[in-house]
Structure formats: structure tokens, C-alpha cells
Amino acid sequence: MTASPYETVMGFLVGPWLAQAVRAAVDLSLAEHLADGPRTAAEIAEAEDADPQATARFLRACASMGLVAYEEKGFAGTELLAVLHHDAPMSLRDLAASQSSACLWLTWARIPEAVRSGESQTTQALGMPFFDYLAAHPDEGALFGAAMTSMSAPVIRDAVEVIDVAAATTVVDVGGAHGSFALAMLARHPGLTATVLDLPHAVPGAQAAAVARGLDDRLTAVAGDFFETVPPGDILLLKFILHDWSDDDCVRILSNCRDALRPGGRIVITEIVIDDHAPGIAPLMDIAMLASAGSRERTLAEFDDVLTRAGLRRAAATPVEPPYVVIEAIAAA
């Protein structure tokens, strides 16, 4: 049966409850507790030092969302809950925790003001620009970095398969956080070495990730600012970077990347490409970026515009995990 307009809009309005319930499921480690079979609310409450009655009520709410199911012996995890397990192949655990945390939640509460002004609301909500806030709150910064890594996983999986490295020996992951893209490229292509460039607070995470993957002999993490300079390389990766910035800022970043290209090199941009009739998450992400960064998701024509202004031209555009596209750019003649 098709939902009525009233029911549909009510579904929109309880969205904040759903997001915070998922965050609470992560905080209580429900996926981990139920991985080996059903448990009672009392058992979960004891393991988490939580109120037993409130835990039972919360599990009832999770059952209504399909995260858990009623069993004779208690509550069992579902396929939806399994996605929140820390060991899931495409785990959303870190993303669920980050997306519902103060650094984003407080900003998105000001979406009406963002639409009226056309400007970021982060300073009004947090007292400072977004990345300054993450640097000043390292715990949230680490969580945000882990969330972006998990959100990137399916996109990176597809992107590494379509990037031609035949003429390359060096890759630079520009603003690469924990270096997940660079590490995937190294794992796929044994002949490559890589540099991850990011702000100082992100460097230890990239170094630790390289050690964990056994690739620290081929990856170097350096602190820097892509508005100032970018290390030289054959392939420069820009994943989920340009949507954080205005057109003028994108031109500065891309100009520095152009200057860092070795002869025959390419800039590989992995971003959402939006259009006026885009379904799904892309238009919502566009408004989230407006509120949090005063920036935007872009159409292919808008990407072409900032590329041209930076002395570059688009050489290819390959769709990967929807709604993402891998755009390859080279220096203009």
C-alpha cells in the first residue's frame, strides 16, 4: 500500500530520531553483542552498564526499524544491524557515529538559515570553521576521519579499477586523511609509491593505517596545506575534496595540483556529480554541504568550469558507485 502524503511527511519528520537511534545502536555495540546469537535486553544492559528498562524499550524501537528481530531467547541481529558491526566489509559504524555527532548535527540544525543566507552555518553552530573545529577537537576529528574512510570504501573499490597507472610510478593522495585511497592503489598496483598530504592532525592516522596494511615502506604521510603547495606526482588523487570548497577555492587547489603534476600526469577527482533531476542522496548531500561548508555538489559542466579556470581540461569521466564519478583532468594545451 502506498503511503499517504501525511505518512510520507511524518516519515521525514522522524528522521532525526532514526539517525540518533542508529547512533545509539552503535554506542551500545548492538551488532557486536548480537553477532553470535540472540541475547536478552537484560544481558545487553548488563554488558553496557545501561538501564535495563530503557534498554528493553530501545530494543523495541530498534525492532520497529528492522535493526533487530524478536526471538524466543531475546533479540537477534538482522542484516541491517550487521552493517553496523566494526568488522563488516562495508561497515557504517563510524559513519553512523560521526554523522550524528555535534560537529555535523548542530550545523545541520541550521539548514533553514543556510538556505536563506546561502552561506555555511558552521561558525554560528560551532564557534569556528569546520576543519578548525576538528583540529581543536581531536576525538571528533579522528571519528570524522574514520567515517570518511568507511564512506569511501565502495567508491574506492570501484575507482581503483578504472584508474590507468600504466605510465605512473607515484601517487599523491591530496587531503587524503588516513590514506585509504592511496593504500588501495598501492595494494592494487605493486609498482607504485604514494604520498598522503593532509593537515597535521591526520598524519598519525595515515601512518598507522599504512603500518596496519604492511605498506609503510611504500607510503609517506606528510603534513601540509593544499592551498599552499602539493607534493609532485604522476597521479594526484582528490577524493571528496572539492565539494568542501567554493569555486574560487577549488581553482586554487586545482592550480596547485596542476603545478605538482609531473610530465604526462593526471589529476583524478572522485566526487558526486549532480544534475537537476538527480534522485537519492545527491541533492540531500548538496544541502548538507551548503550548511556545513558553504559549498556544493557540482554538475559536470560546473566541474569543467573550475578545471578550465585552473588551466586544466577534462580527459575522462567514468561513473562508479552511484552517484560518484571519477573525473580525470590533464593540463590544458
TrEMBL record:
Keyword set for this entry? Methyltransferase, S-adenosyl-L-methionine, Transferase
From what superkingdom does this record's organism come? Bacteria
Q: Which Gene3D superfamilies match?
A: Vaccinia Virus protein VP39 (3.40.50.150), Winged helix-like DNA-binding domain superfamily/Winged helix DNA-binding domain (1.10.10.10)
Listed under GO biological process in this entry are: methylation
Residues of the active site: H243 (proton acceptor)
Keyword S-adenosyl-L-methionine in annotation: yes
Q: Which CDD domains match?
A: AdoMet_MTases
Annotated Gene Ontology MF terms? Answer: O-methyltransferase activity; protein dimerization activity
> Which residue ranges does the record assign to the O-methyltransferase dimerisation domain?
15-78
PROSITE patterns in the record: SAM_OMT_II
Instruction: Domain (O-methyltransferase C-terminal): give its ranges.
Output: 108-312
Q: Which InterPro entries match?
A: COMT-like, COMT_C, COMT_dimerisation, SAM-dependent_MTases_sf, WH-like_DNA-bd_sf, WH_DNA-bd_sf
What is the name attached to this protein's record? Precorrin-6B methylase 2
